[in-house]
Amino acid sequence: MHHARWKRRASKLDFDVTRRQQRFQNRRAAHLLVLLFATLFALPIRAAGLDAQQVELFALEMEHKHGFDATAVKNVLNLAVKLDSVLATMARPAESKPWSQYRPLFLSAERIRAGVEFWNTYATALDDVSTQYGVPPEIVVAIIGVETFYGRNMGNYRVLDALGTLAFHFPARGAFFRSELEQFLLLTRAEQLDPVTPRGSYAGAMGFPQFMPSSFLRFAVDFDHDGHRDIWRNPVDAIGSVASYLHAHGWRAAEPVTMVAEPSNWNENNSSTKVELKQTIAEYASAGSSPRSTVAPNAPAVLLAYAGAEGNEYWFALNNFYVITRYNHSPKYALAVYQLAEAIRDMHTQKTQ
Predict the structure, then answer these.
(1) Active-site positions?
(2) What's the pTM value of the predicted model, to 2 decimals?
C-alpha cells in the first residue's frame, strides 16, 4: 500500500516536473523568438549596389585608359551603394529657388561673422594668395563660406557612393559624373587615399571648397608646402586652391565684379538670366541700360535680372563675375558670393580700424 501510494506520488511528481519543464521550454522558445525578430529588424536592409553591367564596362575602361586592374576597380565599385537620396536631391537644387529665397540662405549675420573670424584666423594665407593670384581675400572667404560655412557643412556622403550613383543611375548627366568618377579614382591613386574614405556632397564635391575630383586634380595646391594637397582638413590648402581655381579661369586683379544697373534705365527686354558676356557696357547704354557706377565703356558685360522680394533687381555682370560662375554656373550663386564678400569685407574693415 505504501508502495502504491509512493508510485502515485512519483507519477504526480513526474507529471509536475514534466509540466514545469514544458512551460520553461515554451517560455524559452518564445524568448528566443522575440530575440530573433528583434535581431532581424535591427539588421540594416541590404542596400542596392551599382548597375553591374556598367560597372564592368567602366572597370575595363579604367584598365585600358589608366592602367588600373579591372578586377580591383570592380571590387571597389562593388562597395558602393546606390543612393536614392542623391537622385532626389539632384532634382531639387537650391539654385531652383527664386533670388528672394536663395539670398537669405547665405547672407546671414552668423555667416558674415564666421567669415570675419575665418579671415582673421588665416590672414597670412589670404594675404599670400591675394599677392600670388590677384584674388581678394573676401572673395576666397565668401566662396568657402557659401560652399561649406567654413568647413561646418562639407557633406557626409561617401564620394564613391555619390559619384557611382550619379554616374550609372542619373542619365541626364551620366557622362559628366562618369568622368568625375574616373577622375576620383585617379585622385585617390595619386594622393594614396582609400577610395571608400573621402566624403563630400550629394554631387561628389569635396572638402572646404567643394571641389569636384577633376577640379582637385587641375587646381588644388599644396599651399603650405607640407607635401599634401589636403582640402578636407587643411584650410590653408583650401584657400590656395580656391584662388588657384579663380586665377586659372581668368580672374583680373583690381577689376570690379558686378554693379547695379541704374533704376531709371532698367530695360527688362535687354536683360538675361545667363552669364554670357556678349555685349559691352557702351552697347547696353545705347539700348537704355546703364550701370550705376563708372566702368570702362568697352568692358564686356551682361545685364542680369533677379526676382527680388519687391520686384526685379538688375545687375551688370563683368568678367570677374563670369569667373565666379565657372565655380558654379548659377548667376544667383555668383551674386550671393559677391554680396557675402562685400559684407564680410565691410565688417572686417570695421573691426580692424
Answers:
(1) 147
(2) 0.83
